[in-house]
Every structure is written in C-alpha cells, then in structure tokens.
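Exercise 7.
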Amino acid sequence: MAQLDVSQIKALTFDVFGTVVDWRGSIIRQGEQFGAERGLKVDWAAFADAWRGAYRPSMDRVRRGELPWTNLDTLHRMVLDELLVKFGISGLSEADIDHLNRVWHRLDPWPDAVEGLTRLRRRFVLATLSNGNVALLTNMAKYGGLPWDCILSAELARHYKPDPQTYQTAADLLGLQPAQVMMVAAHKDDLRAAQRVGFKAAFVTRPYERGPNHTPDLTPDPAFEVHASDFNDLAGKLGV
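Solution. The predicted structure, written as tokens, is:
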C-alpha cells in the first residue's frame, strides 16, 4: 500500500452509488412493491441491472458533447422511458413514472454506512462526490440518514466522473489542496481518476453491489493508500 500521513487528510469524499448505498437491492425491493401495487409482472433484478447498465453510456454522451449538460435525474428518466418499452410496462401515469424514476433518491445505505460515516465525521469533513445531482443526493441523505457535512456533485462542476474537473472542483469548494482529500470508493477506476488529480485513495469492498452472481475485483491495489472491508474498518484504519 502507498504510504499515508493521516494527519494531512482533512476531508473524505465519497462515491455514493454502490459504495454508500445498495442501489441494486433497493431498486429490486421498491420495484417489487411498485409492481405489486399496480399489477405488473416484471423481473426487477433484470430491470435494475439494465437501468444501471445504461448509467455510464448515458453520461459518456454528455462527456463527449453529444448531449448538453444534463443532470442524472434527466438521464435516468431518458433510460427509464426506453426500459418501460423494453420490459413491456404500460398504463402508468406520469406521476407513477416520476415516482419510479425517483427510486434513485430512495436508496438504502449498506448496513455499516451510517455508523461508519458517523465515526469518520468525528475527525474528517465528509462530502459526497457523486455523479448524482444535488437534489438526488440531498433527498437520498434525508431518506437514509446519511450524515454528510456537505453535498458535492458532478453537477457543480458540470463534468461527470472520471473527468478531472469533477475532483478538482470538489477540492476547490472544500478550500483544500487535492492531497488533503481522500476519495473513498468501491470502484477502482474512480479512485485512479481521483489520484491523477492528487487525491488520496481508499478502496472499500462492496462484494454484493451487483448481486450474488457477479464477482467483482476485490484485490488490493498497492497504489491505493487504504484498503478496507467496510466503513467501520476504514474508520479504524484512519485512526478514528
């Protein structure tokens, strides 16, 4: 592991989808309830996977300039409209579709998340650094009781991760040098992009993010300063 002087770290910024919250399990659970109330027969696990599968491609259209700046709620809705057709879901009102789209505002934290974040907040400033838009992240925090000090988002930089502007804007808004910030994520590409800007990196494993049939790469990367099994383990390794 890379050497780390914890005393130099002033803030932790967190990827959210998959790292802090269980997007897949949440969408399946809420989808099943939504479908039962409306008499829909849907494979909600496949639906969740297809929705998330379009996440990066839709953002890449913005990153390449094919779309003007478009926030994640709007991108999610564009994909949802296509999925409703693909999965043969019809007869929903606009209010129903909007409610379903906002399932991303109502994602459940991983079991260790709130306790671990509360511990970490004793020593560090905690902020989101997500591709989710500010309203989405704010509503999610309220829903899940996530104890952020502030909400930072790709929306503020008008650049989606892994664009370097996203990370640099977060450091600037926190009034810190990149080396004073540690990015926390369950995704190695996010951490590597943050490191290229000068952030420190903490890899937290989330083996069940994509469900029981997916085997993620959980091997430690020696370039990352910290490797943790969950947020409580991260707090212990950072001396909290």
